[in-house]
Fold:
Amino acid sequence: MRPLKHCTILAAPIFLLAGQTLAETPLDGIQDLSFGGNGLASISFNLAAGHTDDAQDVVVSPSGSIYMAATVGISVQVRRGGGSAWPGLLADGRLDNTFSSDGLSSPSPAALNEFHAEARGLAVRADGKPIVAGFRYSTNLEGKILVCRFNVAGNLDSTFDSDGCAEPTLALIDNGGEFAKAVVAMPQDRILVAGHVAVNPLNTNHSDGLLLMLNSDGSIANGFGTQGHVLVRPPVATMTFVQDVEVLPDGRLLAFGRSDVSSFVARFDANGLIDTSYGVDGYALFDFGDLHMLSNPEELLADGAVDAEGRAYWCGNVRSDFNIALSVLALARLTPAGMLDPAYSGDGRFLAPFIDVLQNSNVAACKIDTQGRLVVAANPGTDAPLNGDFGALRLGTDGLPDLSFNSIGQTRVSIDLGGNGVGHDEISGMALMGDSVFLAGTSHPVNGFSQNEKLIMVRLATDRTFADGFGLIRWAHETQESFRVRRACCSIGRASGK
Structure:
């Protein structure tokens, strides 16, 4: 069998120069057991039988507040964590009562009163207002895009589509589905949404990627693309999904996606017109097929990123035999012209398991840090039983593992809510603030999935140790499902004694 590129290692020796001590050369990725209970803070309250929690995304606002979006039960929820001005004394994750008087706001816009709604993307405007994009199913299972904007105080912003939630109706396909997966706060307070449209919301064999622009009041920006939207489809593809969109400094847009033909990145100008100077006729097409011999492979995109030089990073995994728990990391970097970058990992592609002996290496998110390095959030774990952990990987600008990150380029932490190695943990989002890495996800107390999971957020501090963090867990209505917003305080500084 052909070996995978850049296979990782399980451990590495630690070398100290003469005269150095461990205190002078701190190790990255070492869990700080002095924080909370065994290095992790977690909060539980208002549990309701039969409800489930799923974390989706996390962002850091310009003011340093941390927002987390999650779907709880059949509702969409946003949770907000504390700011950078607070010392480590508030790093225990308790609710901030200055936010909506008790840390919790539960508005119920009419758009959420139907069948099922899910959060997917999260963004924050320069003024601190969070924006959540997702979709809902009506009772006839028709999928509709849903975008909601909150005030900093935690209530829905009534200047946005009158009740705080916009439901832009494109009606591109009768009885079809329109789904949002990512959202970006744009200049002039416009909102850019990325996702896809499908002929049948329950069968995506015929789908197109989608970019949609909204005005600051929630109406469709008709000057963008064709009546406010752009359909994204590489040549000869019949099934296309756009998972993320990034904005370049000059206003051009990079759409990251996958299709039944190949993985891709497409570039558009600020008005939604395809930029034919990028890749081939606007599309950079590539795949990982020659780097592995996996059976029934499928390339899945999780996230995209762009660095200061305009290079695009496609971050996902290659799944085997249609089993999401049998997968390897798949990363690619493209030049500003839309070609695989040979200066990155040999030929522009990186394919490897997070840890050699584990079958599962799902990528959840990726970001570029202040030094131009790619930071990847992933789920290393096993398939039988299904037991994943929180993981983070950092690659240098050459595409090789950054050995200054936990000495082997990666960090793996088990939440294990069930104790004694039992518990399935899933990362769903990541945010960077300076040298800090915030990982958000869902933890189950069993190997596999359960209805007693918790929403968890942890922080890798300056030296990548778990210096502080906070856990955010489920809250749900016994009856009517609705948007709810919660804020918790946490320290952005190091924990006491560090």
